[in-house]
Amino acid sequence: MSQHPHLNVLTATCPSRTSLARIANKWTAMVVIVLGGGRRRFGDIRATVDGISGKVLTDTLRDLERDGLVARHAYAEVPPRVEYELTPLGHTLHEPLQALSRWAEEHIAAVLAAREEYDTRR
Q: Does domain 16-121 have CATH number 1.10.10.10?
């Protein structure tokens, strides 16, 4: 499964589980998709990701920075300016998350129909 035989995300003690949990988070996926378009300011990200709170966005950006997926650039200006962008590692995640996003958009009608059929049978 892995190029590192000692790593297996299906094993409870595998450290890769934390990375999988992070990238499976809906807000993480959306932020990475937005930053795939280039460097953005906090307010721009928040305006683009409809429904995300400032606190959740702050926490998400910090987690992504900690994991080496996002770089934070602070400028000593008045008022202060901060921008975020994907790191090279973050760019490796953008394409698969973008593909999942496209899948969700392309298949939502089928998913909704399946839910309705399931709920009707219950």
A: yes
